[in-house]
Amino acid sequence: MAVACPADRRRRPILTKALTAMITAVFLLASLATPAHAAPKPTIKQLKKELAALGKQSDKLITEYYNGRIAHQKAEKAEKAAQDKLAAAQEVYDRESAELRLMAVAQYTNGGPPSPATMLSANEDPSALMSRLALSNHLVDQQSARLAGFAKVRDDRKQAEGEAAARAKELGDQVADLGKRKDKAEQLIKKIKDKIDKLYQAPGVRRSDGTWVPQLPGGSDNITPRMRLVKTLVKERFAVPNGIGCYRAIQDGGEHPLGRACDFMLSRGGSMPTAAEVARGNEIAAWAIKNSKRLGIMYIIYRQRIWHARTGAWRTMSDRGGTTANHYDHPHISVY
């Protein structure tokens, strides 16, 4: 049996320490290299708590929006009253301006009002002269009074114009403020809708590859529970005033006869939808893509394009020959 020399025994603690340090470093690097776990999905309880908080915030914003509407209505009334006052002042101003112009023309045509010097005559009776002089003074006083009255009319009109401008600015400020309040309230309502969406999970069994086990249609509408959930959520969120068509008995190779598809109509009678309805269709399609994994959405067709969950991208479809056939008047949603 070999006996270790004293030098070997002295080196062992050093080697042991070095080995321990290396092992520690390896474990440390391994722990740093391990990816962090994804944040856990919020539970139904957490979502409901968040919804309650958002509801309180929403009530506050809606109250502020309501107060803004009241202030806006008051500003509208004040602006209308100021405009009416200005219109009346303008009418008086125009009338007085016309009278002044007539007076100026008459004075120019007649050479102006007679002066006492031009009225003197050697053979004229002094009493007649005094009468003419009194008439002349009366005309001068009348002109002075009209000029003074016109100055007031002019000043009243200027004041009414200033008040109307101030009320118009106040109304403009109220409109801008109300618009901001409305946008904030709508954004919060959208956030609430998003939270509500997350409370729902598509019913049924989901496979490991992300697809879903098919379901049987049922109920009076002949659609599957998964399709019914998507239909309900879209209807509640986007209204869809022109109707929703789902089950069709015609076997066309699609999902309608299987109860796994719905059309969300944006117009009636095959007519092209308005710009606002096209935007509604885009919002429905974007919502369906965003929630496709959770709700079991297989594909979406809209405006001669198809989006499939397998690829996660839109592609153009061939022309089928019409507004409805090419899905320009409705987004189509199919579920697994």
Question: Could you explain how this protein is built, in words?
Answer:
The chain has helices at residues 6-33, 44-109, 116-119, 126-198, 225-238, 275-290, 292-295; strands at 244-245, 261-264, 297-301, 305-308, 313-316, 332-335. The chain has 336 residues and is α+β, with helices and mostly antiparallel strands. The chain folds into two domains: 44-114 and 127-198, Helix Hairpins; 225-335, no CATH class. A hairpin with a 3-residue loop joins strand 3 and strand 4 (305-308).
Gist?
This protein has seven helices and six strands. With 336 residues, the protein is of the alpha+beta class. The protein has a six-stranded antiparallel β-sheet.
- CATH class type of the largest domain: Mainly Alpha
Strand content: 5-15%
Quickly count the helices. 7
Give, in order, the helices and strands. HHHHHEEHHEEEE
Q: Give the rounded overall mean pLDDT.
A: 80
The percent range for helix content is 55-70%
Extract low-pLDDT stretches: 1-38, 116-120
Number of domains: 2
**End-to-end Cα distance:** 75 Å
Output the strand order for the largest sheet.
1-2-6-3-4-5
CATH architecture of the largest domain: Orthogonal Bundle
CATH topology of the largest domain: Helix Hairpins
Largest sheet: 6 strands, antiparallel
- What structural class do helix, strand and pairing data support? alpha+beta
**Radius of gyration, CA atoms, in whole angstroms:** 43 Å
How many strands in all?
6
Tell me the overall shape: elongated
